Amino acid sequence: MAKTSSVEKNNRRRKMVKQYANKRAKLKAVTQNKELPIEERFAAQLKLAELPRNSAKNRIRNRCEVSGRPRAYYRKLKMSRLALRELGNLGLIPGLVKSSW
User: Fold this and answer.
1) Among residues 1, 14, 25, 92, which is most buried (max CB within 10 A)?
2) What are 25-65's pLDDT values in tens digits?
3) What is the DSSP letter of 16?
């Protein structure tokens, strides 16, 4: 089980990303528009830099929803390999069978 503080920190980042998504998208569109004057694009870039760092989407860490583990994460299932194995052994994941030969 991961530290509760790490999981909560990541949840706060998710909320902040959602909160600033529209503002960040508008500023990025202005900075990437080559038809606008350079001064206007630079001003938009400075405003973008003033936004909180944790409002950037790439600051979010993929974590297992069962254990909070940050590594060995399956995106499709939103859980780590260890949680997948444990739930699979208990028969809680439909279609998952432990291989044996």
Assistant:
1) 14
2) 999 999 999 999 999 999 999 999 999 999 999 999 999 99
3) H
What are the beta bridge partners of residue 79? Answer: 74
Where does residue 98 fall: left (phi above 0), alpha (psi -120 to 50 degrees), or beta otherwise? Answer: beta
In a domain, residue 49? The reply is yes
Tokens of 62: 């993929």
Q: Which residue has the tokens 């439909």?
A: 94
Domain containing residue 14: 1-61
| Cα-trace Rg, the chain | 20
Shortest CA distance to 67 belongs to which of 52, 50, 56, 81? 81
How many structural domains comprise the chain? 2
User: Sign of the C-alpha dihedral, residues 39, 43, 48, 52?
Assistant: positive
CB atoms within 10 A of CB 65: 13
Quick one: average pLDDT of 69-76? Answer: 94
**Are 48 and 30 within 8 A, CB to CB?**
no
